Amino acid sequence: MLALLPPVLREIQLPLRLRLWNGYELELGPIPSVTLVVKDPGLITQFEQPTLDALGEAFVEGRLEMEGSISEVIRLCDALSRALIPDENAAPPERRAHDKDTDAAAISYHYDLSNDFYALWLDRDMVYSCAYFETGQEDLEQAQQAKLRHLCRKLRLKPGDYLLDVGCGWGGLARFAAREFGARVFGITLSREQLALARERVKAEGLDDRIELELLDYRDLPQDGRFDKVVSVGMFEHVGHANLALYCERLYGAVRPGGLVMNHGITAKHTDGRQVGRGAGEFIDRYVFPHGELPHLATMTARISEAGLEVVDVEGLRLHYARTLNFWSANLESRLEEASRLVPEQALRIWRLYLAGCAYGFEQGWINLHQILAVKPYGDGSHDLPWSRRDLYA
């Protein structure tokens, strides 16, 4: 049976055990903390070059089982992949056209999975984006509230401001901005499931008179400068490189002169947007975020600037997102039985790998997260921003 396994596996020293379909076991190092259970004999040849994409696909399809903590599984699978696959620069990704139907279908695939499923592992406001850890000691609830406050302070929101929330999700930021800062909010999403629950929560909090949420594509935003401020969280990753310029132009047209625009989103490590992680990016593209494309910070700021907005502040929150994802992953792992009753088995396998894998990816610097604040200058080039950031931390 040993002869079936690629000889190179016997040269590796990792706390990892392989168990074959017939019960035969091979320990790759002392005191294994993770066991990979190979249920399909056809997988054996893939262990010669085990990409994270191939291992993840096998797990999703039930041809491979994983025993051990999911975070340790991710770490050791990456170590196995690094040991057997030489580092090579991936080719720049193919740019794909994004139309309204394609984007709507992609958003529905990810976000319309099950509101109850997401509620299992998100915070009480169901904020599905990077939290903000002011000291590093906060729990998830505290850090998500801090993030919402941080965004509103950066936007210098004040009572009566008309805020556009592009990609409003379950409405956590919209409600926070209306309740805590006295703003009027117009939020848009392409997810029907998110919209339904977001409207329920707005009504339950008695904020109907200050918040309006609609199913609307960003390409159809009004272009009359009616909004005082614009916030977009976790949105530009879905736009696609080919449409980034149009997206930024739509935000420019929606905000008044002197108004502020905040983009908060995941950014690529490489300036050309090529993927990293020995197949991890391909797995996410196939199973998690179809048609998602990550721009580099330089690309995003260029498109914002070319649209006529002036970038005035940039903050990197890579490790904040790693910690957020670790919270989410731990929450899901602690409620797997409940989750299995809410979504299909394959979906649960995908999300287990996705949350733990993304936490690892942010820790390793494969991807980043940036908040980019911009202003639409007045005709004479001026704006109303304070001279320093002092007010953000008062």
Structural class of the secondary structure composition?
alpha/beta
β-strand percent reads 15-25%
Distance between the termini: 67 Å
Shape: elongated
What is the mean predicted local confidence, pLDDT? 91
Percent in helix: 25-40%
CATH class of the largest domain: Alpha Beta
- Radius of gyration, in angstroms, nearest whole number: 22 Å
Number of strands: 11
Under CATH, the topology of the largest domain can be stated as Rossmann fold
**What is the name of the CATH architecture of the largest domain?**
3-Layer(aba) Sandwich
Show unreliable segments.
none
Sequence of strands across the biggest β-sheet? 7-6-5-8-9-11-10
Question: The biggest beta sheet, please?
Answer: 7 strands, mixed
Number of helices: 13
Order of helices and strands: EEEHEHHHHEHEHEEHEHHEHHHE
**CATH evolutionary superfamily of the largest domain:** Vaccinia Virus protein VP39
Number of domains: 2
